[in-house]
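Just wondering, can you check both lines?
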Amino acid sequence: MDLADLKHRLHPMIGFLKSPFARNVPPEGKISPSPRLSADEASHPMEAILPSSADAAGPSTRGGLDPDWIISVLLVEQHALQGEVKRLQAETQSLRAENEQLRAALTLQVAKRFGKSSEKRAPQAEATPEPSSPLGVETPAPERPASAPIRRKRGGQPGHAGHGRAIPAGLPREERLHELPENERQCPDCGLPYEELPFTDDSEEVDVQVKVVVLRHRRKCYRKTCACPGPQVLEPPVPSKLIPKSKFTDETWTKFLLDKYLGQVPITRQIELLQHTGLPVAKSTVHGGFDRLYDDLAPLYQHFLTHLHSAGHIQADETRWMVFEEVEGKTNHRWWLWSFASPSPKIVVFVLDPTRSAAVPKRSLGELITPEQVTALADSPLAARIVWVDEKPYLLPPNRSAELTAKPQVHQCRPPARLPRPAPRCLGRVLLGASTP
Protein backbone atom coordinates (compact mmCIF):
# COMPACT_ATOMS: atom_id res chain seq x y z
CA MET A 1 0.00 0.00 0.00
CA ASP A 2 1.50 3.37 -1.01
CA LEU A 3 1.12 6.80 0.67
CA ALA A 4 -1.57 7.98 -1.74
CA ASP A 5 -3.73 4.95 -0.95
CA LEU A 6 -3.25 5.52 2.81
CA LYS A 7 -4.29 9.18 2.53
CA HIS A 8 -7.33 8.15 0.52
CA ARG A 9 -8.44 5.75 3.23
CA LEU A 10 -7.83 8.22 6.13
CA HIS A 11 -9.43 11.22 4.40
CA PRO A 12 -13.00 10.42 5.60
CA MET A 13 -11.79 10.14 9.22
CA ILE A 14 -9.92 13.45 9.12
CA GLY A 15 -12.96 15.22 7.67
CA PHE A 16 -15.21 13.70 10.29
CA LEU A 17 -12.94 14.76 13.19
CA LYS A 18 -13.00 18.37 11.92
CA SER A 19 -16.79 18.42 11.65
CA PRO A 20 -19.09 19.92 14.36
CA PHE A 21 -20.46 16.46 15.03
CA ALA A 22 -17.07 15.30 16.27
CA ARG A 23 -16.85 18.29 18.66
CA ASN A 24 -20.15 17.34 20.35
CA VAL A 25 -18.49 15.73 23.40
CA PRO A 26 -19.57 15.91 27.08
CA PRO A 27 -17.81 18.20 29.59
CA GLU A 28 -14.57 17.25 31.21
CA GLY A 29 -15.00 14.54 33.80
CA LYS A 30 -18.20 13.26 32.22
CA ILE A 31 -16.72 11.23 29.38
CA SER A 32 -18.87 8.28 28.60
CA PRO A 33 -17.25 4.87 28.63
CA SER A 34 -15.73 3.63 25.36
CA PRO A 35 -18.18 1.52 23.48
CA ARG A 36 -17.14 -1.99 22.54
CA LEU A 37 -16.91 -2.89 18.87
CA SER A 38 -19.07 -5.62 17.52
CA ALA A 39 -17.75 -8.38 15.26
CA ASP A 40 -18.89 -6.53 12.16
CA GLU A 41 -17.32 -3.27 13.36
CA ALA A 42 -14.05 -4.99 14.24
CA SER A 43 -13.77 -6.33 10.68
CA HIS A 44 -14.25 -2.80 9.32
CA PRO A 45 -12.74 -0.45 11.93
CA MET A 46 -12.82 2.61 9.68
CA GLU A 47 -16.51 2.23 9.04
CA ALA A 48 -17.12 1.86 12.79
CA ILE A 49 -16.01 5.44 13.55
CA LEU A 50 -17.51 7.05 10.47
CA PRO A 51 -21.08 8.32 10.77
CA SER A 52 -23.81 7.02 8.59
CA SER A 53 -25.93 9.24 6.39
CA ALA A 54 -28.53 9.50 9.16
CA ASP A 55 -25.98 10.36 11.84
CA ALA A 56 -24.41 13.10 9.76
CA ALA A 57 -27.59 15.13 9.91
CA GLY A 58 -27.98 15.06 13.72
CA PRO A 59 -26.06 14.48 16.92
CA SER A 60 -24.38 11.16 17.58
CA THR A 61 -26.37 8.44 19.28
CA ARG A 62 -23.28 7.57 21.35
CA GLY A 63 -23.18 11.04 22.99
CA GLY A 64 -19.73 11.83 21.52
CA LEU A 65 -16.52 10.12 20.51
CA ASP A 66 -14.01 8.88 23.05
CA PRO A 67 -10.37 9.67 22.08
CA ASP A 68 -9.20 6.37 23.58
CA TRP A 69 -11.66 4.53 21.41
CA ILE A 70 -10.42 6.37 18.31
CA ILE A 71 -6.82 5.51 19.22
CA SER A 72 -7.70 1.84 19.64
CA VAL A 73 -9.34 1.82 16.22
CA LEU A 74 -6.28 3.47 14.65
CA LEU A 75 -4.01 0.88 16.29
CA VAL A 76 -6.10 -1.90 14.80
CA GLU A 77 -5.87 -0.23 11.41
CA GLN A 78 -2.12 0.22 11.82
CA HIS A 79 -1.69 -3.48 12.64
CA ALA A 80 -3.71 -4.41 9.57
CA LEU A 81 -1.63 -2.10 7.40
CA GLN A 82 1.63 -3.56 8.77
CA GLY A 83 0.43 -7.07 7.88
CA GLU A 84 -0.45 -5.85 4.38
CA VAL A 85 3.04 -4.34 4.01
CA LYS A 86 4.70 -7.61 5.03
CA ARG A 87 2.57 -9.56 2.57
CA LEU A 88 3.43 -7.17 -0.25
CA GLN A 89 7.14 -7.35 0.60
CA ALA A 90 7.09 -11.16 0.48
CA GLU A 91 5.20 -11.04 -2.83
CA THR A 92 7.78 -8.57 -4.20
CA GLN A 93 10.66 -10.88 -3.28
CA SER A 94 8.91 -13.82 -4.93
CA LEU A 95 8.34 -11.82 -8.11
CA ARG A 96 11.98 -10.70 -8.16
CA ALA A 97 13.19 -14.31 -7.88
CA GLU A 98 10.83 -15.38 -10.66
CA ASN A 99 12.00 -12.44 -12.77
CA GLU A 100 15.64 -13.50 -12.38
CA GLN A 101 14.81 -17.04 -13.47
CA LEU A 102 12.93 -15.81 -16.52
CA ARG A 103 15.74 -13.44 -17.49
CA ALA A 104 18.28 -16.26 -17.17
CA ALA A 105 16.15 -18.49 -19.40
CA LEU A 106 15.73 -15.65 -21.90
CA THR A 107 19.48 -15.06 -21.96
CA LEU A 108 20.09 -18.73 -22.74
CA GLN A 109 17.53 -18.83 -25.54
CA VAL A 110 18.85 -15.61 -27.10
CA ALA A 111 22.40 -16.97 -26.99
CA LYS A 112 21.26 -20.17 -28.70
CA ARG A 113 19.29 -18.45 -31.46
CA PHE A 114 21.24 -15.29 -32.13
CA GLY A 115 24.71 -16.14 -30.80
CA LYS A 116 27.69 -17.36 -32.81
CA SER A 117 27.33 -20.96 -33.95
CA SER A 118 30.81 -21.45 -35.41
CA GLU A 119 33.37 -23.40 -33.42
CA LYS A 120 36.24 -21.29 -34.76
CA ARG A 121 37.62 -18.72 -32.37
CA ALA A 122 40.40 -16.18 -32.52
CA PRO A 123 43.75 -17.23 -31.02
CA GLN A 124 43.27 -14.68 -28.24
CA ALA A 125 39.80 -14.62 -26.79
CA GLU A 126 38.38 -11.11 -26.67
CA ALA A 127 35.45 -9.85 -24.68
CA THR A 128 32.47 -9.87 -27.00
CA PRO A 129 29.19 -8.14 -26.12
CA GLU A 130 26.28 -10.35 -25.33
CA PRO A 131 23.69 -10.68 -28.12
CA SER A 132 20.81 -8.31 -27.65
CA SER A 133 17.31 -9.62 -27.35
CA PRO A 134 14.94 -9.00 -30.29
CA LEU A 135 12.33 -7.89 -27.76
CA GLY A 136 14.49 -5.05 -26.47
CA VAL A 137 15.06 -6.66 -23.05
CA GLU A 138 18.55 -6.26 -21.69
CA THR A 139 19.73 -9.69 -20.59
CA PRO A 140 22.53 -9.85 -18.02
CA ALA A 141 25.42 -12.19 -18.73
CA PRO A 142 25.12 -15.46 -16.81
CA GLU A 143 27.73 -15.84 -14.09
CA ARG A 144 29.89 -18.98 -14.20
CA PRO A 145 30.35 -20.64 -10.82
CA ALA A 146 33.91 -20.55 -9.56
CA SER A 147 33.99 -24.33 -9.07
CA ALA A 148 32.61 -25.22 -12.52
CA PRO A 149 35.34 -26.72 -14.78
CA ILE A 150 35.83 -25.36 -18.30
CA ARG A 151 34.89 -28.10 -20.76
CA ARG A 152 36.92 -28.60 -23.91
CA LYS A 153 34.85 -27.87 -27.00
CA ARG A 154 34.65 -30.25 -29.91
CA GLY A 155 36.53 -29.67 -33.14
CA GLY A 156 39.63 -27.62 -33.78
CA GLN A 157 40.95 -25.69 -30.81
CA PRO A 158 41.94 -22.00 -30.96
CA GLY A 159 45.40 -21.51 -32.41
CA HIS A 160 45.79 -24.94 -34.05
CA ALA A 161 47.56 -25.18 -37.40
CA GLY A 162 44.65 -26.76 -39.27
CA HIS A 163 44.69 -29.16 -42.19
CA GLY A 164 45.05 -26.67 -45.02
CA ARG A 165 44.00 -27.51 -48.58
CA ALA A 166 45.61 -30.93 -48.73
CA ILE A 167 44.86 -32.86 -51.94
CA PRO A 168 45.43 -36.63 -51.96
CA ALA A 169 48.62 -37.52 -53.78
CA GLY A 170 47.08 -40.61 -55.37
CA LEU A 171 44.71 -38.64 -57.60
CA PRO A 172 45.75 -38.38 -61.26
CA ARG A 173 47.25 -35.04 -62.29
CA GLU A 174 46.57 -33.17 -65.49
CA GLU A 175 48.86 -30.25 -66.28
CA ARG A 176 47.68 -27.07 -67.94
CA LEU A 177 50.33 -24.58 -69.04
CA HIS A 178 49.52 -20.86 -68.76
CA GLU A 179 51.66 -18.34 -70.64
CA LEU A 180 51.65 -14.60 -70.98
CA PRO A 181 50.23 -13.19 -74.22
CA GLU A 182 52.69 -12.04 -76.88
CA ASN A 183 52.03 -8.34 -76.27
CA GLU A 184 52.81 -8.73 -72.52
CA ARG A 185 56.19 -10.50 -72.89
CA GLN A 186 58.14 -7.27 -73.32
CA CYS A 187 58.83 -4.20 -71.22
CA PRO A 188 56.15 -1.53 -71.70
CA ASP A 189 58.79 1.26 -71.34
CA CYS A 190 61.73 0.19 -73.52
CA GLY A 191 60.23 -2.68 -75.50
CA LEU A 192 62.92 -5.24 -74.69
CA PRO A 193 61.57 -8.84 -74.40
CA TYR A 194 61.35 -10.67 -71.10
CA GLU A 195 63.57 -13.69 -70.51
CA GLU A 196 61.76 -16.96 -69.74
CA LEU A 197 62.87 -18.57 -66.48
CA PRO A 198 63.46 -22.33 -66.10
CA PHE A 199 60.86 -22.74 -63.30
CA THR A 200 57.10 -22.22 -62.94
CA ASP A 201 54.76 -21.12 -60.19
CA ASP A 202 52.47 -24.14 -59.59
CA SER A 203 49.10 -24.43 -57.88
CA GLU A 204 46.55 -27.26 -57.76
CA GLU A 205 42.78 -27.56 -57.61
CA VAL A 206 40.36 -30.49 -57.81
CA ASP A 207 38.12 -30.75 -60.86
CA VAL A 208 35.21 -33.22 -60.66
CA GLN A 209 33.97 -34.03 -64.16
CA VAL A 210 30.77 -35.90 -64.97
CA LYS A 211 30.72 -36.47 -68.68
CA VAL A 212 29.49 -39.05 -71.16
CA VAL A 213 32.04 -40.28 -73.68
CA VAL A 214 31.38 -42.49 -76.69
CA LEU A 215 34.16 -45.04 -77.23
CA ARG A 216 34.62 -45.83 -80.89
CA HIS A 217 36.46 -49.14 -81.42
CA ARG A 218 38.28 -49.14 -84.74
CA ARG A 219 39.44 -52.65 -85.68
CA LYS A 220 41.91 -52.77 -88.48
CA CYS A 221 41.26 -55.24 -91.28
CA TYR A 222 43.95 -57.36 -92.96
CA ARG A 223 43.82 -59.12 -96.34
CA LYS A 224 45.80 -62.18 -97.23
CA THR A 225 48.35 -61.83 -100.01
CA CYS A 226 48.79 -65.58 -100.54
CA ALA A 227 46.67 -68.33 -102.10
CA CYS A 228 46.45 -70.47 -98.97
CA PRO A 229 43.00 -71.67 -97.92
CA GLY A 230 41.14 -69.82 -95.21
CA PRO A 231 39.45 -66.45 -94.77
CA GLN A 232 40.85 -63.74 -96.94
CA VAL A 233 40.13 -60.82 -94.58
CA LEU A 234 41.11 -60.86 -90.93
CA GLU A 235 40.25 -58.42 -88.13
CA PRO A 236 40.68 -58.32 -84.33
CA PRO A 237 37.82 -59.75 -82.25
CA VAL A 238 35.21 -57.55 -80.66
CA PRO A 239 36.11 -56.58 -77.03
CA SER A 240 34.32 -58.89 -74.62
CA LYS A 241 31.52 -57.49 -72.42
CA LEU A 242 29.24 -58.85 -69.72
CA ILE A 243 26.19 -58.07 -71.84
CA PRO A 244 26.95 -58.68 -75.53
CA LYS A 245 25.64 -56.10 -78.00
CA SER A 246 24.92 -53.67 -75.17
CA LYS A 247 25.56 -50.02 -75.86
CA PHE A 248 26.98 -49.52 -72.35
CA THR A 249 30.40 -50.60 -71.14
CA ASP A 250 30.98 -52.85 -68.14
CA GLU A 251 32.12 -49.80 -66.15
CA THR A 252 28.79 -48.10 -66.90
CA TRP A 253 26.81 -51.09 -65.63
CA THR A 254 29.00 -51.12 -62.52
CA LYS A 255 28.13 -47.47 -61.96
CA PHE A 256 24.41 -48.26 -62.32
CA LEU A 257 24.68 -51.02 -59.71
CA LEU A 258 26.71 -48.98 -57.21
CA ASP A 259 24.47 -45.92 -57.51
CA LYS A 260 21.37 -48.05 -57.07
CA TYR A 261 22.35 -50.38 -54.22
CA LEU A 262 25.23 -48.52 -52.54
CA GLY A 263 24.34 -44.86 -53.12
CA GLN A 264 20.56 -45.48 -52.78
CA VAL A 265 19.89 -43.55 -56.01
CA PRO A 266 16.76 -44.84 -57.81
CA ILE A 267 16.94 -45.78 -61.47
CA THR A 268 14.53 -42.99 -62.39
CA ARG A 269 16.79 -40.37 -60.81
CA GLN A 270 19.86 -41.81 -62.50
CA ILE A 271 18.13 -41.52 -65.86
CA GLU A 272 17.19 -37.90 -65.14
CA LEU A 273 20.83 -37.08 -64.36
CA LEU A 274 21.96 -38.71 -67.61
CA GLN A 275 19.44 -36.65 -69.56
CA HIS A 276 21.13 -33.47 -68.31
CA THR A 277 24.35 -34.66 -69.96
CA GLY A 278 22.56 -35.20 -73.29
CA LEU A 279 22.10 -39.00 -73.10
CA PRO A 280 18.47 -40.21 -73.11
CA VAL A 281 18.09 -43.67 -71.55
CA ALA A 282 14.92 -45.74 -71.17
CA LYS A 283 14.14 -47.24 -67.78
CA SER A 284 13.44 -50.64 -69.32
CA THR A 285 16.98 -50.67 -70.72
CA VAL A 286 18.54 -50.46 -67.27
CA HIS A 287 16.11 -52.97 -65.75
CA GLY A 288 16.70 -55.38 -68.62
CA GLY A 289 20.44 -55.09 -68.11
CA PHE A 290 20.04 -55.90 -64.42
CA ASP A 291 18.16 -59.07 -65.36
CA ARG A 292 21.00 -60.06 -67.69
CA LEU A 293 23.54 -59.57 -64.88
CA TYR A 294 21.76 -62.09 -62.64
CA ASP A 295 23.81 -65.06 -63.85
CA ASP A 296 27.06 -63.12 -63.34
CA LEU A 297 26.26 -62.09 -59.75
CA ALA A 298 24.79 -65.42 -58.57
CA PRO A 299 28.24 -67.04 -57.99
CA LEU A 300 29.24 -64.06 -55.84
CA TYR A 301 26.16 -64.58 -53.69
CA GLN A 302 26.93 -68.27 -53.30
CA HIS A 303 30.47 -67.30 -52.28
CA PHE A 304 29.07 -65.18 -49.46
CA LEU A 305 26.87 -68.06 -48.30
CA THR A 306 29.84 -70.43 -48.25
CA HIS A 307 31.78 -68.14 -45.94
CA LEU A 308 28.66 -67.63 -43.80
CA HIS A 309 28.41 -71.41 -43.22
CA SER A 310 31.88 -71.42 -41.66
CA ALA A 311 31.07 -68.68 -39.14
CA GLY A 312 30.95 -69.68 -35.50
CA HIS A 313 28.27 -67.14 -34.55
CA ILE A 314 25.36 -66.02 -36.72
CA GLN A 315 22.74 -63.36 -36.04
CA ALA A 316 19.44 -63.54 -37.89
CA ASP A 317 16.20 -61.60 -38.07
CA GLU A 318 13.36 -61.01 -40.49
CA THR A 319 11.09 -58.10 -41.38
CA ARG A 320 8.25 -57.73 -43.82
CA TRP A 321 9.01 -56.46 -47.31
CA MET A 322 6.46 -55.53 -49.94
CA VAL A 323 7.15 -57.15 -53.34
CA PHE A 324 4.60 -56.59 -56.08
CA GLU A 325 5.12 -59.90 -57.87
CA GLU A 326 2.47 -62.49 -58.52
CA VAL A 327 3.38 -65.88 -57.03
CA GLU A 328 1.22 -68.97 -57.42
CA GLY A 329 -0.46 -69.81 -54.14
CA LYS A 330 0.24 -66.40 -52.53
CA THR A 331 -2.71 -64.03 -52.12
CA ASN A 332 -0.87 -60.87 -51.00
CA HIS A 333 2.31 -58.93 -51.72
CA ARG A 334 3.87 -59.26 -48.26
CA TRP A 335 7.23 -60.96 -48.43
CA TRP A 336 9.87 -61.33 -45.73
CA LEU A 337 13.41 -60.01 -45.84
CA TRP A 338 15.77 -62.16 -43.79
CA SER A 339 19.21 -60.95 -42.74
CA PHE A 340 22.03 -63.25 -41.66
CA ALA A 341 25.16 -61.62 -40.23
CA SER A 342 28.39 -63.02 -38.83
CA PRO A 343 31.00 -60.97 -36.97
CA SER A 344 33.90 -63.16 -38.16
CA PRO A 345 34.14 -63.17 -41.10
CA LYS A 346 32.17 -59.95 -41.47
CA ILE A 347 29.44 -60.99 -43.89
CA VAL A 348 25.80 -59.94 -44.17
CA VAL A 349 23.52 -61.97 -46.44
CA PHE A 350 19.95 -60.95 -47.25
CA VAL A 351 17.32 -63.52 -48.21
CA LEU A 352 14.00 -62.43 -49.71
CA ASP A 353 11.36 -65.11 -49.28
CA PRO A 354 7.53 -65.21 -49.50
CA THR A 355 7.27 -66.83 -46.03
CA ARG A 356 8.79 -66.47 -42.58
CA SER A 357 8.77 -70.17 -41.72
CA ALA A 358 11.65 -72.13 -40.24
CA ALA A 359 12.38 -73.51 -43.70
CA VAL A 360 14.01 -70.20 -44.74
CA PRO A 361 17.07 -70.36 -42.43
CA LYS A 362 17.40 -74.11 -43.05
CA ARG A 363 17.39 -73.59 -46.80
CA SER A 364 19.67 -70.54 -46.63
CA LEU A 365 22.26 -71.92 -44.23
CA GLY A 366 22.18 -75.46 -45.61
CA GLU A 367 23.73 -76.98 -48.70
CA LEU A 368 21.44 -78.58 -51.27
CA ILE A 369 22.41 -82.21 -51.90
CA THR A 370 21.12 -84.93 -54.19
CA PRO A 371 19.09 -87.99 -53.12
CA GLU A 372 22.08 -90.16 -53.98
CA GLN A 373 24.19 -88.26 -51.46
CA VAL A 374 21.47 -88.74 -48.84
CA THR A 375 21.65 -92.50 -49.39
CA ALA A 376 25.44 -92.46 -49.16
CA LEU A 377 25.38 -90.50 -45.89
CA ALA A 378 22.64 -92.58 -44.25
CA ASP A 379 25.06 -94.59 -42.08
CA SER A 380 27.50 -91.73 -41.35
CA PRO A 381 27.39 -89.13 -38.52
CA LEU A 382 26.45 -86.55 -41.14
CA ALA A 383 22.98 -88.06 -41.40
CA ALA A 384 21.90 -86.03 -38.33
CA ARG A 385 22.65 -82.84 -40.21
CA ILE A 386 20.33 -83.62 -43.13
CA VAL A 387 16.97 -81.78 -43.18
CA TRP A 388 14.20 -81.85 -45.77
CA VAL A 389 12.72 -78.56 -46.92
CA ASP A 390 10.08 -78.48 -49.69
CA GLU A 391 10.88 -82.14 -50.44
CA LYS A 392 14.54 -81.28 -51.01
CA PRO A 393 17.45 -82.50 -48.84
CA TYR A 394 19.80 -79.92 -47.28
CA LEU A 395 23.00 -80.60 -45.38
CA LEU A 396 23.34 -78.13 -42.53
CA PRO A 397 26.79 -76.84 -41.54
CA PRO A 398 28.39 -78.05 -38.28
CA ASN A 399 26.86 -76.82 -35.00
CA ARG A 400 23.74 -75.65 -36.86
CA SER A 401 21.48 -78.72 -37.05
CA ALA A 402 20.37 -78.67 -33.40
CA GLU A 403 19.87 -74.89 -33.34
CA LEU A 404 17.82 -74.73 -36.53
CA THR A 405 15.75 -77.72 -35.48
CA ALA A 406 14.89 -76.16 -32.12
CA LYS A 407 14.11 -72.65 -33.32
CA PRO A 408 14.14 -71.03 -36.77
CA GLN A 409 16.24 -68.02 -35.76
CA VAL A 410 19.77 -68.48 -34.43
CA HIS A 411 20.11 -65.06 -32.76
CA GLN A 412 17.86 -62.04 -32.84
CA CYS A 413 19.07 -58.73 -34.21
CA ARG A 414 17.50 -55.71 -35.83
CA PRO A 415 17.85 -55.45 -39.63
CA PRO A 416 19.89 -52.61 -41.12
CA ALA A 417 18.10 -49.25 -41.25
CA ARG A 418 18.66 -48.78 -44.98
CA LEU A 419 18.15 -51.72 -47.29
CA PRO A 420 18.06 -51.62 -51.09
CA ARG A 421 14.60 -52.11 -52.51
CA PRO A 422 14.47 -54.76 -55.27
CA ALA A 423 13.34 -52.89 -58.35
CA PRO A 424 14.02 -55.56 -61.01
CA ARG A 425 12.82 -59.09 -60.33
CA CYS A 426 15.87 -61.24 -60.98
CA LEU A 427 18.61 -58.84 -59.93
CA GLY A 428 16.81 -57.99 -56.71
CA ARG A 429 16.99 -61.64 -55.68
CA VAL A 430 20.71 -61.77 -56.26
CA LEU A 431 21.70 -58.51 -54.58
CA LEU A 432 19.34 -59.10 -51.68
CA GLY A 433 20.13 -62.80 -51.53
CA ALA A 434 16.64 -63.85 -52.53
CA SER A 435 15.79 -67.52 -52.59
CA THR A 436 13.78 -68.76 -55.51
CA PRO A 437 10.22 -69.54 -54.35
